[in-house]
Amino acid sequence: MTPLWLARHARPLAAAGLCYGALDLRADTEATRLAAQGLAHAIPQRLAVHFSPLQRCEQLAQALRALRPDFIFKPDARLREMDFGDWEGRSWQAIGAEALAAWTDDFAEHRVGGGENVTGFMRRVAEAWDELATAPTLWITHAGVIRAAGLIARGQRHVERADQWPAWAPAYGEWTRIERPSGAVPISSGPAIRA
User: Fold this and answer.
1) Which first-to-last residue range defines the signal peptide (predicted)?
2) CATH of the domain at 6
3) 114-150 pLDDT tens trace
């Protein structure tokens, strides 16, 4: 069993109800600092840390690097959140029910807002999973990538319908751990902020 830790970035500086995936938003500085402190205490030594190059994840990687110089850090574009095309930066309400229905009706292949489709998104996360499966690793990433990794851990690399997509992901600044490559479901999780 090879553990994979999955940490979600801290709360982004964005209005409630905003669609953002590939939109490069900053995260709250204090929440990022607290998340990095929690991770620094929870994660074992000499770990490889791969992070999404979007700044909300890079902020957490840099804050963690200051606390844990024993880690090896590397940006990995495959760990970016799904690209919602021209939906990025718009409110979900403004996107509207008709556009959302077009996506859910063809969940696997519809290019959301002209951006990415779920099939391509799952493929790139699976590529990172397969390449990085040989050593204990921490991914600093996004809710969608964590959900995709959870599916891959259970042996599911294709999602056909919207109701197959997991609802659960760690909250902002929290983490979870899964085992690779056995396909085990998440075995532990917790907030990056520890009392």
Assistant:
1) none
2) 3.40.50.1240
3) 999 999 999 999 999 998 878 899 999 999 999 999 9
Q: In whole angstroms, what is the distance from residue 116 CA to residue 7 CA?
A: 23
What single-letter amino acid sits at 31? A
* Structural domain for 63, as ranges: 2-191
pTM to 2 decimals?
Answer: 0.91
How far apart, in whole angstroms, are the C-alpha atoms of residue 7 and residue 146?
A: 8
Residue 110: Cβ-neighbour burial (10 angstroms; 0-12, 13-18, 19+): middle
In sequence order, which residues have a C-beta less than 8 Å from that of residue 72 and are 6 or more positions away?
A: 46, 47, 48, 49
Closest-CA residue to 140 (of 69, 84, 62): 62
Confirm if 44 and 137 have CB atoms less than 8 A apart.
Answer: no
Residue 88 Rama label (left phi>0; alpha psi -120 to 50; beta): beta
Number of domains within the chain: 1
The backbone torsions φ and ψ at residue 141, rounded to the nearest 5 degrees and listed phi first, read -150, -150
